[in-house]
């Protein structure tokens, strides 16, 4: 018996140009990927910016987060388990390998208060905003 995965939401031929390029350049004749791009959500409220990366299976020690000259770079690696003990894999859809994502951040953040936390497969980076100084002056009409 041959095990075949069926997934109607992910067709053999990608439905976007970007998906087609990813499939063409990243899938190397059935070998696992060496690099991948985790999904990212970016949000903002009145006090901070928040970046969330979906990277389940990565350990905290495997992340590197740097903020240099207004460029935030998040990198890491998801390692594939080497224990195969009698298992024959018919499909491996989990993305393994290294990743790196970079973002230019606004100038209005408090660099010394940037915080990164990893929980339940989500890396959450909080970039607090500086307080806006309201400059108010009474101007005399002459």
UniProtKB/TrEMBL annotation:
SUPFAM superfamilies linked to this entry: HSP20-like chaperones
Transmembrane domains' residue ranges: none
Organism annotation: Algoriphagus pacificus
Upper lineage: Bacteria, Pseudomonadati, Bacteroidota, Cytophagia, Cytophagales
Family affiliation: Belongs to the small heat shock protein (HSP20) family.
Domain of life: Bacteria
Domain SHSP residues, every copy: 31-142
Designated name of the protein: Hsp20/alpha crystallin family protein
Coiled coil ranges: none
